[in-house]
Amino acid sequence: MYQKINQSLYTGRQSNKIHYLHEKIKFVDLDQHLTKSIHKPVFSILGYCCDEGVKRNKGRAGAAAAPDMIRKMISPLANHFPDSLDILDFGNIYCDNKDLEKIQTFTSGKIQEITENQIFNIILGGGHDLAYAHFNGLKNAFPKKKIGIINLDAHFDLRAMDEQGTSGTPFYQIASENPENFQYLCLGIQKESNHKELFSTAEKFGVKYLYNQEFVIQNYENVSRLVDALTSTVDLIYLSIDLDGFSSAIAPGVSAPSPLGFQIDIVVKVIEDVIKSEKLVACDIVELNPTYDIDNTTARLAARLLYKIFELKISQIQQ
Ligand SMILES: N=CN[C@@H](CCC(=O)O)C(=O)O
Ligand SMILES: [Mn+2]
Ligand SMILES: [Mn+2]
């Protein structure tokens, strides 16, 4: 189910001066006891190579290949990160035998372990079923903390779970299992992509949301007010970025593209605000589907967002 990273994914110019991220990133076996490998502040990535949730949700398969494609796009980026900080790649978790529940439980355990080691980790999906695993890992790592969720997405992903979880059910699962502690803000909701019952479910669970046409830079003041309202009432924030919420002109490589999706500028502003709150403990970027990508546009976007988040978090640590 777990594999250490294949180093050949990371290629690019050789500077011998660590000018590029493929020269900076270190590969760590997640099966080793983590604290042995860690001597400095650490940021890391972990791949969730699973599209079983997307398949169960009747979507287009392919997200399992996303983490390695994002790594390829991270690889040649210029390294401006300090030597005093390590960036680790913990490798990939794979979904064997269509057993989504097993991979989610395994992933939660690994997230808990990474988080308890004070590592700031970004998980690369995979389908959005990752969110259920991610939240549970955080909940176990911080049992006494109130964890708020900010999801940038075209979809609520609040589909009722009939028998099995899918990529469309993660926040319903979280809400049902944590009725007293469900703080969920969803930005970029598209009316055309969420049926009426999903809006009723959102209301029932007290979900706060903005439509795609409201999630624009011209409306930044209101966006920022909603983000602040959430961050000020919780202890910690888990940020989930579903690439299918972006305009399909920007992010074509997803299972469910959004011609009227959001733009990059407002997403960057939200990332800045969330990091400024000093409560961001976890982040994932999900739903890339390399099969439908065009010149790796969506994978490159994922890589740049990851870079931006690391950069902002690091400058906060250094202040
Ligand atoms: N994680 C994605 N969830 C969406 C997919 C929509 C679609 O496939 O059209 C959802 O279930 O609503
Ligand atoms: Mn989603
Ligand atoms: Mn979505």
TrEMBL record:
Catalytic activity entry: N-formimidoyl-L-glutamate + H2O = formamide + L-glutamate
Molecular function, one GO term: agmatinase activity
EC id: 3.5.3.8
Annotated Pfam families: Arginase (PF00491)
Chain residues that bind Mn(2+) 1: H128, D153, H155, D157, D242, D244
SUPFAM superfamilies, sorted: Arginase/deacetylase
Required co-factors: Mn(2+)
Biological process terms in GO annotation: L-histidine catabolic process to glutamate and formamide; L-histidine catabolic process to glutamate and formate; putrescine biosynthetic process from arginine, via agmatine
Residue stretches in coiled coil: none
Binding site for Mn(2+) 2: D153, H155, D242, D244
InterPro entries, A to Z: HutG, Ureohydrolase, Ureohydrolase_dom_sf
Gene3D superfamilies associated with the record: Ureohydrolase domain
Entry note: cofactor: Binds 2 manganese ions per subunit.
NCBIfam families membership: hutG
Family: Belongs to the arginase family.
Role description: Catalyzes the conversion of N-formimidoyl-L-glutamate to L-glutamate and formamide.
Name of the featured protein: Formimidoylglutamase
Native source species: Aquimarina brevivitae
